[in-house]
Amino acid sequence: MSQLTEVAANPYADELAAAKKAVSLAARLCQRVQQGILQSDIQSKADRTPVTVADYGSQVLISLVLKKELPSHSFSMVAEEDSEDLRKDDAQQILEHITSLVNETIANDDSYNMSLSKEDVLAALDGGKSEGGPSGRHWILDPIDGTKGFIRGDQYAVALGLLDEGKVVLGVLGCPNLPSKSTNKHNGSSSGDQVGSLYFATIGCGAKVQALEGSEPQKITICSVNNPVDASFFESLEHSKRDLTSSIAEKLGVQAPPVRMDSQAKYAALAQGDGAIYLRFSGKGYKERVWDHAAGSIIVTEAGGMVKDASGNDLDFSKGRYLDRDRGIIATNRYLMPMVLKAVQEAIDEEQ
Ligand SMILES: Nc1ncnc2c1ncn2[C@@H]1O[C@H](COP(=O)(O)O)[C@@H](OP(=O)(O)O)[C@H]1O
Ligand SMILES: [Mg+2]
Ligand SMILES: [Mg+2]
Ligand SMILES: [Mg+2]
């Protein structure tokens, strides 16, 4: 398809180009930090989850690129990080480090000629405080999803989605440590395949992958396994109720051991057919955040898959910063979804 035809067929072509550019640049910053991460680069948030200089740097770069590339668009962003902890007296050194990381990443790219001050960095972070909701357009950003995986040297994703009138219409996932072709070696870079992939989708236009460093985009599709005995499933490495997911897998007759991976790289791997099912069941009372699912879920649905809550409802991204949903999230193909939902209900009933 020529570029002109693609623009005509995709009403979000400009937003997609900007989002891909933003995520690619942010992923470059993350790669540099992951290679040499120090304990002093990591902070603990009020909820005791970790945040690193790269989470902040990625969020700053993405909001900057989106504003530069889409100057005529109004800007609203629902993002994970904010400047609160960086405004404290003891955070000055880390703020300086983030500022220089952002400026070095910009300087190493030919696109922009600018330099940010510490105040610019703080202001850019606070551009992500939108509540989102059912009307208008809102970017949804997780600057590093899977921070724990990032710190460990494993999988993580830079995840950017666009909400339009309450629906996710675009998603981009930068997965610097994920090979773009089907392989089971998810946690390493030992396969011969291209490692470092950019996944993207816009509503009605399918899902594609290209190398993070740039290559011809390839269409991706979810696997067509229709017998659960032949299926494998993904779950979170850090946040999964393993007793429940293993009970679901047993009911389905799944033979393969679970593939445990950090971040929305799971959605990307599923969308390119590396496995058949993603089960996400966290502890009771945990409220899922929209930025942990927006980009990944549209990439799976545009690759031909389905993403539902435990009751079989679509995910509702229109309720603000949290997902309004029944317990659990299930992503799989349309053949397996009814069987998985049945097994999920049985496993939940037995648990009570
Ligand atoms: N107790 C919990 N249960 C479920 N998810 C949690 C959690 N604590 C944190 N998370 C979320 O899980 C995300 C990582 O996903 P995964 O578990 O698939 O690797 C985290 O994203 P961040 O790393 O962006 O903070 C965070 O939002
Ligand atoms: Mg976090
Ligand atoms: Mg996250
Ligand atoms: Mg995050």
TrEMBL record:
It holds the Pfam family Inositol_P. InterPro entries: DPNP, Inositol_monoP_metal-BS, Inositol_monoP_superfamily, Inositol_monophosphatase-like, Inositol_monophosphatase_CS. PROSITE patterns: IMP_1 (PS00629), IMP_2 (PS00630). Its EC number is 3.1.3.7. Keywords: Hydrolase, Magnesium, Metal-binding. It comes from the Eukaryota. It is an enzyme of class 3 (hydrolase). Coiled coil: none annotated. It catalyses: adenosine 3',5'-bisphosphate + H2O = AMP + phosphate; 3'-phosphoadenylyl sulfate + H2O = adenosine 5'-phosphosulfate + phosphate; adenosine 2',5'-bisphosphate + H2O = AMP + phosphate. One of its GO terms (biological process) is inositol phosphate metabolic process. Mg(2+) binds at E80, D142, I144, D145, D292. Its cofactor is Mg(2+). One of its GO terms (molecular function) is metal ion binding. NCBIfam families: bisphos_HAL2 (TIGR01330). Belongs to the inositol monophosphatase superfamily. Converts adenosine 3'-phosphate 5'-phosphosulfate (PAPS) to adenosine 5'-phosphosulfate (APS) and 3'(2')-phosphoadenosine 5'-phosphate (PAP) to AMP. This is 3'(2'),5'-bisphosphate nucleotidase. It comes from Urochloa decumbens.
